[in-house]
Write a structure and sequence with these properties.
The structure is a homodimer of 191-residue chains.
Chain A: H1 11-24, H2 33-39, H3 54-78, H4 83-100, H5 102-109, H6 120-135, H7 145-163, H8 177-189
Helix pairs in contact in A: 1-2, 1-3, 3-4, 3-5, 3-6, 4-5, 4-6, 4-7, 4-8, 6-7, 7-8
The structure holds a DNA duplex (30 and 30 nucleotides).
Chain lengths: 191, 191
DNA sequence: AATGCTATGTTAGAGGCGTTCACATTGGAG
DNA sequence: CTCCAATGTGAACGCCTCTAACATAGCATT
């Protein structure tokens, strides 16, 4: 990316894009602010005009990641009337997202020094599905929807994290993400 | 740790201990091989006589972490005859471990470049509890014990990971680890 | 006991990264 | 048109990982 003008014009977004690109290439290890700057065709000091440092850039990347995840979940649950089907699709979409964007996923959910984005709107999507599932008696109505949704979220998240590990570290999680999610929810609720 | 002899004597373990110490102090961010060497009172090149690099040291730390986790789980389930109680204690111990040793926990379960230790023996402990729980009809006998145990492990792991995040990132997971585990398993199986 | 091999430690340095600071350029508001 | 604030550069600091050449000492064999 060689530039003719002194000013880049849209450096901030270019940096975020470059960062996502590196993560998408699986280069979580070799990720560096210098590398991001290089890809944007800019000096290593330039990013500091837009971000206070590496962490703030990664936070911005994570934020866009949350938006992407939310969109995936919405898409998965949008045109599915059947409650059971919708819950399973939602679950599959979550694990699928982690599987398709492993380094982005790790970046989103790593522990941050300061504040960091959340997945509130994504949680809402799951929560609504749980409310409906409880109304249909597909799953127990006993614990509150919030608690139930939280439990399911935890399950899906654990599933995603564990299935991302190296082959011999997996606990036999070699199936495609959707099957993994389905069989797990089935195990817990007998769906 | 100032030394009088030229040779350290037990540097390998001292490095692992130092690394665990730093992680225990919550210094996941400021963790460095140089810092570990410094604490052992040794030059920054010395660790390379015992480990091929930073990752191999962390792998060794992770390995000991798995042993510690396994011990915790054994202790939690050993003297508990009641099946339900045992399962809940086991679950609580898992989330408790993550809560008590957050950086060690993250180190254990981060994705590694090469091979890395697993938690097979820990899984066996959970598996046995699940077998017993299914035999008592405490939980459904439907999916195989392996699949059931895997699902529960995922749930606990997700719970652990998510509850470790910053306060406002938690999904209302402010209860002590044991309560978190208990209420979640209750939600799923109506225990 | 003396010798020498090898494990273990040291010093020096290359190359990379995150970050800061003084300085350069330029788009746009007045 | 002028000048300011925003945006980018170059150079430098300190820290990091890792390597290479060299120093010391534990130990096995004689």
């Amino acid at each position: 990316m060689t530039r003719t003008t002194y000013h880049h014009g849209a450096l901030r977004q270019a940096l975020i894009d470059g960062a996502r690109e590196i993560l998408a290439e699986g280069g979580h290890e070799q990720f560096s602010l210098n590398e991001v700057a290089r890809r944007a065709g800019v000096s290593t000091a330039a990013p500091y005009r837009h971000f206070s440092g590496k962490d703030e850039l990664l936070a911005a990347v994570a934020e866009q990641g949350y938006a992407t995840l939310h969109a995936s979940l919405e898409r998965a649950s949008a045109d599915t009337a059947d409650v059971r089907e919708r819950l399973l699709r939602l679950a599959g979409a979550y694990v699928r997202f982690a599987h398709d964007h492993p380094d982005l996923f790790v970046t989103m959910f790593r522990s941050w020094p300061g504040a960091a984005p959340v997945g509130h709107d994504s949680f809402e999507v799951l929560l609504q599905a749980v409310v409906d599932a409880q109304a249909t008696a597909l799953i127990p109505a006993k614990p509150s929807p919030e608690l139930m949704a939280r439990s399911i979220w935890a399950t899906l998240h654990g599933l995603a994290v564990l299935s991302l590990r190296q082959p011999h570290q997996r606990f036999g999680m070699d199936e495609p993400p959707e099957d993994l999610a389905t069989s797990t929810l089935s195990a817990m609720f007998g769906l």
